[in-house]
Amino acid sequence: MNTFYELGLSPEVLKPIGNMGFEEMTQIQQEAIPVALTGKDLIGQARTGTGKTAAFGIPMIENFIPEQGLPQGLVVTPTRELAIQVAEELNRIGGFKRIRSLPIYGGQDIGRQINNLKKRPEIIVGTPGRLLDHIRRRTVRLNEVVTVVLDEADEMLNMGFIEDIEAILREVPEKRQTLLFSATMPRSIQELAERFMVKPQVIRTKSKEMTVPEVTQLYIEVQESQKFDALCHLLDIQPPELAIIFGRTKRRVDEIAEGLKSRGYSAEGIHGDLSQPRRESVLRQFRNATIDVLVATDVAARGLDITGVSHVYNFDIPQDAEGYVHRIGRTGRAGRSGKAISLVTPREREHFRSIQHSIGTQIKREPLPSLVDVIKGQQRVVAEKILEIAEAGTAGHYREMAGKLLEENDSVNLVAAALKLLTKEPDSTPVRITEEGSYRFRQSHSGGGRKPHYNSKRRPGQGGNYSKRYR
Question: pTM above 0.85?
Fold first, then answer.
């Protein structure tokens, strides 16, 4: 089956699917939805951006009965951002059937959540900590839940939520459907499935889908002192529609975002120390393209599903292959192409090779952009904008002045002067970015070579942390 119309879904579910622009199903949807509709347990291995929310949301909404009183479905997610996004999509799918979803997460006023829970939503989407809080307060009752979904299960376990997940699963009826979705399948996920699932059907997306084929992957070798200028040059040569820049730490994210803003880029940072209203405000600006550059830590960007991200920049390379695949999966979504560029320092070269080996992809090396490349890129952008305005015919009140200038001056010289005036020359404003920590490698206890490990503090003899000033 390739389309949703072949699934035998009710008109109340098919109508919003059509309104959302869904046509052909993704691989995970083709394989997971028919199984989930039968009520069987299921393990789905698929990276983000492959339509997992619809893969579990459509069967839940098709099978649930509106206005039953207590929640029938529970979705557990690792982050508040993902909880919000999943709930929004489920509400779109369930709108015509009156199946309502409510996100509950830390950082939002718990009194407001309690009032919303009194409206008796059919599906609760929540983070582990806040779900347990409500369970202990008895403001959430799960004794009528028939379907539980663990979304981004590997990330929840990586974040240390295993005990919370086990406690939540003990609160729902033993006779239930459990759907588990994860980008990777470590032993911890398998053990969780053995304990809490009944003969689950395992669905794995093809390996080629796991490596994000829609994304052009490149890397540039740079010295630490060159990173920020290299990033700015890349943004100037090919201005992105929307871009996400990944930094290793909260401090790093703040410094990159402030540095970009000081050079005139429309950028904001997001990380776990921001208040929830501030995080939501930044993400709203990014979705609406009010800002076009988002600087983020891995945790803050987990589960972000924003259409139109054309570029991902790894200012700092991630700690492992799973992190790399997660990051570059923010672009190249929904069949669109994207570009991922990593800035790799000499000391990170070996670690970056191990990432390439793990994902089975040879990533192309590009030279460091030169000042000439930057200026040419800006000239090209300016020329395209001038042509757009000319074709749109919106410059009519400038024609009289243009005619006078052409009477007295060479046309080529005039256009060249306009290009020079409008071209954004690279800014030399000094920006302070702190270099933090170093990579070392240790023997993996499981064998199979060396495992990358990030040290946030230098060891004796390596020198202390130090700062670089970019010029």
Answer: no
